[in-house]
Amino acid sequence: MENIIKQLQADIVLALKKIYNFDCELNSISFQNTRKEFEGTHTFVVFPYTKALRLKPDQIAQGIGQFLHENTEYLASYNVVQGFLNLSFKVEVWLQAFSEIIDNEHFGQAPKQHRKVMVEYSSPNTNKPLHLGHLRTNFLGFAAANMLEAAGYDVIKSNVVNDRGIHICKSMLAYQLFGHGETPESSGIKGDHLVGDYYVKYDQTFKAQVKELVADLRSKNTDLSEEKAQEMAAKNAPILLEAKKMLQDWENAVPEVMHLWKRMNAWVYAGFEKTYQTIGVNFDRFYYESETYLSGKEVVKKGLESQHFFQKEDGSVWIDLTEEGLDQKLLLRADGTSVYITQDLGTADLKYKEYGMEKSVYVVGNEQDYHFQVLFQILKKLGRPYAEGLFHLSYGMIELPSGRMKSREGTVVDADDLVAEMKQVAAQRTAELGKIEDFDDAQQEKLYAQLALGALKYYLLKVDPKKKMIFNPEESIDFQGNTGVYLQYTHAKICAILRKAKQLDIQYRTDFKTLNSIEPLELELLSGMMLYPNLVTEAAESYSPALIANYIYDLARLYGRFYAELSIFAEPNRAKCAFRIAISAKVGQILQHGLMLLGIEAPERM
Fold first, then answer.
1. What's the average model confidence in pLDDT over 554-562?
2. Of 80, 149, 418, 445, which sits 20 to 30 A from 23 (CA to CA)?
3. Averaged pLDDT, 187-204
4. Rounded distance, CA 325 to CA 336, Å?
């Protein structure tokens, strides 16, 4: 089909020259999908040419349409609706195009571009387990990496682990105070969950101390407002001061603190790895902020020497970005400890030194929009060669029907628990259908996991990344409607058709030239399938898995109409029967590939 489209572009350029003596570039000619209420599959919009040609849109469209009809072999008909020229190709054009893609197992995979891009996602803190919000960043990052790879990029998937800082010290301190030697083994609690429990314990203790301090302060000074007392108490709670002291001890490599840090982090890493395996994401390179913050300090030191940064009287280091419409940004605290952006500067340099990629994508929630504006601006000011290729894939937060999640208060939806609950729902819904009685226990468990993760991933990815969303588990695992399970079920149904074709020894990968007509639904499916390769490239360039999700849903829904309205095995014309099986096979392949890009498995039986 690509060759026909190029020929059509060339013929329209020729028509503009021959009829109107107007010159234009081949790549300026583009097409839209014809609206469903009009006949045709490709529409050429002529409004951009009305001013130069000094003619009404419908006159231009009519002239070009007539020229194409009289001078080409591929056009069946055309119609004009104002400035829209709707085009219909001959049957043999579609059959030839379909013959070219039916055996292409790499349909949707672009040739290698030999261009490197790094996609950073997950980015967990080692003071708590992964939760629902982490699932969105993991699924979004993994899908973005898959799409970029399908678009021909060499992709490096990275995970920058925040394994140092005040939040990590809070969990460590709470364990030191209240842990009594508890371990994942002794408690039977997964390591990341155990450490997260102590993060919650810290917050509970902090709030209790603040409440006590507020009461004490106001009893001694009755003129002190509640708000001012809260502010003073929050800064002076004993457990917070201890956590700050622990952070300084960590940066000074105090042995006792380092031993506890390594021990608790090891528990967390083991827990994270189990979760990553369960949810089906992986990484090519892990970076640890404990290993990059020193190089970040070195970047700050050199920036100070080059006068890109400045130092305040208290010794803290800043950058002034007010001329860029931002603000002054702290880069190093007065006590010499680093902030998040310090280590981000060091990590960015290390990434480029190791891989030399031309693009670097950070998949992080939109609450960090300002942080990345500042980071990217600093790297540009420092003249980093990779600065122009930096991109923040910002995504909206996920909320529950009951409101926003808070890790320190223990109100998050835990990722492990959520996946387990989704598997239970998948098992229940599948049992109600009663179609897998012959599956053994292992096959059933595998299917439940595929359905649960398919439902979860699709629900989180079908929405534009920038949009905030409310997660509803019940909606996500419905076998009907715009869900991952519906797409998996459609793929499984197609697999059943192909198994039956094999049993009946129907050779459907044949030459379709004997067909002299195509049903409207068949044509709509063929036209839709031809869009897939360009759609993958568009989704990759815009970092939007939602484009893939909505495309494959529309394709599956259209196939549902095709399956309901047109006979396949009951069709008496053997050529038509084979053609419809072939269409089914290609739709199934595209669904499988599209689901794969989203990180979703496509079962062959359900």
1. 97
2. 80
3. 96
4. 27
Residue 89 DSSP one-character state: E
10 Å CB burial of residue 434 (0-12, 13-18, 19+) is exposed
Q: Does the pLDDT of residue 511 top 80, yes or no?
A: no
For the chain, residues classed under CATH 3.30.1360.70 are 2-89
For residue 417, give both structure tokens: 């628990």
> Phi, psi (5° rounding) for residue 116?
-95, 140
Numbered ranges of CATH 3.40.50.620 in the chain: 116-409
Measured on CA atoms in the order 176, 179, 184, 190, is the torsion positive or negative? negative
Provide the Cα torsion 63, 69, 74, 77; round to 10°.
90
For residue 476, the model assigns a pLDDT of 75
What value does the mean pLDDT take over residues 222-245?
95
Cβ atoms within 10 Å, residue 237: 19
Q: Kind of pairing, strands 154-161 and 32-33?
A: unpaired
Intervals of CATH 1.10.730.10 along the chain: 424-597
Query: Taking Cα atoms as reference points, which of 528, 525, 521 lies closest to residue 565?
Result: 521
What CATH number has the domain spanning 2-89? 3.30.1360.70
Go through 565-588 and write b for each residue having 16 or more CB atoms within 10 A of its CB, e for each that does not: eeebeeeeeeebbbbbbbbbbbbb
C-alpha–C-alpha distance, residues 130 and 159, integer Å: 13
> Do 394 and 366 touch, CB atoms closer than 8 A?
yes
What does the alpha-carbon distance between residue 40 and residue 599 come to, in Å, rounded to a whole number? 34
* DSSP 8-state secondary structure symbol assigned to residue 384: -
CA gap 278, 568 in Å, rounded: 39
DSSP 267: H
Burial of 464 (0-12, 13-18, 19+ CB in 10 A): middle
CB 413 within 8 A of CB 132: yes
More confident residue, 432 or 208: 208
The third-level CATH classification (topology) of the domain covering 116-409 is: Rossmann fold (3.40.50)
- Identify whether the C-beta of residue 50 lies closer than 8 Å to the C-beta of residue 57: yes
Q: Which residues pair with 359 in a beta bridge?
A: 117
Amino acid identity of 360?
Answer: S
| Residue keyed to tokens 């050429």 | 44
What tokens appear for 305 in the block? 């020497």
What are the structure tokens assigned to 27, written together?
């790549």
Burial class, 20, CB count within 10 angstroms (exposed 0-12 / middle 13-18 / buried 19+): middle
From 359-363, 436-440, 442-446, 496-500, the region with the lowest mean pLDDT: 436-440
Helix (H) or strand (E) holding 246: helix 238-251
Confidence of residue 407 (pLDDT cuts 50, 70, 90): very low
Average pLDDT, stretch 241-257? Answer: 95
pLDDT 10s digits, 261-275: 999 999 999 999 999
Strands 32-33 and 42-45, by their bridges, are: antiparallel
What pairing do the DSSP bridges indicate for beta strands 154-161 and 116-120?
parallel
| Listed residue (592, 379, 371, 354) closest to 487, CA to CA | 592
Residue identified by tokens 């009893």 is 219
424-597 placed in CATH 1.10.260.40: no
Closest C-alpha to 210, from 241, 182, 181, 185:
241
Question: pTM value?
Answer: 0.91
| CA-to-CA dists, residue 331 to 290, 321, 328, 384, 536, angstroms | 16, 12, 10, 17, 40
Position 406 pLDDT exceeds 60: no
317-320 and 310-311 beta bridge pairing: antiparallel
Distance between CA atoms of 393 and 372, rounded to whole angstroms? 10
